[in-house]
Write a structure and sequence with these properties.
By secondary structure, this protein is of the alpha/beta class. The chain has a single domain (2-226), classed as 4-Layer Sandwich (Metallo-beta-lactamase, Chain A). Helix content is 19%, strand content 29%. The chain has helices spanning 52-55, 58-65, 73-81, 172-182, 202-211; strands at 2-5, 11-15, 18-22, 44-46, 68-72, 89-92, 97-100, 103-109, 126-132, 135-139, 159-163, 186-190, 215-217, 224-226. The strands form two sheets. A seven-stranded mixed sheet has the order 6-5-4-3-2-1-14, covered by helices on one side. It has a seven-stranded mixed sheet with strand order 7-8-9-10-11-12-13. Helix 4 (172-182) links the parallel strand 11 and strand 12. The termini are close together. One of its GO terms (molecular function) is hydrolase activity.
Length: 227
């Protein structure tokens, strides 16, 4: 099982040959200028919400890969309006669980806002828990620290992808608390450094997590890590 980081909150999981992409935003990320969107292939695309920095490259990658796009009902409506066929869209809602060929995916709570790039209401922002073989991975999406995270501790998470940039989401200090709430020691940072309001001091952030007994990974853009 592998994960490639494309910057911001865009990650590509390789689940034993099934490629699962989350929140595709590459073209307009100044830190990802070396990445060619044409080279990104996915079997599934999951969207945490409809903000531009999470969906900008959805259609391009969907069309070149014929990927299935999964997201909350209202954001799924926007996906269809972009021209993605009905049979390539999975709409579901908070608390819902998908049984897919590569594993199980549960949609969970996130505290944020959600509109689509056309300015319409996008439904609730969400996170996802992936159950892949004996591994469980939490993708938090854009979220503030919330007590609902404590409900995730029951899943015995192996990895958690948490936003750490602050300003629009929780910051590193809140992410340390979130790691405690979800009872997960292996953290992968997302949603940081792409723009000035969310720039972090990486060394200082790693010390903060280490002091809390947590292992924080901050992969370089285009870096692939094993999970």
């Amino acid at each position: 099982m592998k994960m490639t980081y494309y910057g911001q909150s865009c990650v590509l999981f390789d689940f034993d040959g099934t490629r699962v992409l989350l929140d595709p935003f590459v073209t307009y990320n100044p830190l990802a200028s070396a990445i060619k969107v044409a080279d990104i292939k996915a079997d599934y695309i999951f969207l945490s919400h409809g903000h531009q920095d999470h969906v900008a490259d959805m259609l391009t990658i969907q069309q070149q890969s014929q990927a299935t796009v999964a997201t909350i009902v209202e954001t799924a409506g926007w996906v269809r309006k972009q021209g993605v066929p009905d049979d390539k869209v999975i709409e579901f809602n908070l608390g819902g669980t998908l049984q897919l060929p590569f594993g199980k995916v549960k949609m969970v709570y996130a505290m944020h806002t959600n509109s689509t790039p056309d300015g319409n209401y996008g439904g609730f922002p969400v996170g996802y828990v992936f159950f892949i073989g004996d591994k469980t991975i939490y993708f938090a999406g854009d979220t503030a620290l919330t007590m609902e995270m404590k409900l995730l501790a029951r899943f015995n998470l192996d990895y958690a992808l948490l936003p750490i940039g602050g300003h629009y989401t929780m910051d590193a200090e809140d992410a340390v608390l979130a790691a405690d709430f979800i009872n997960c020691k292996e953290i992968i940072g997302i949603h940081y450094d792409s723009f000035p309001p969310i720039t972090i001091d990486k060394a200082e952030t790693k010390v903060l997590f280490q002091a809390a007994g947590l292992n924080l990974q901050l992969p370089a853009i285009a870096e692939t890590i094993s999970l």
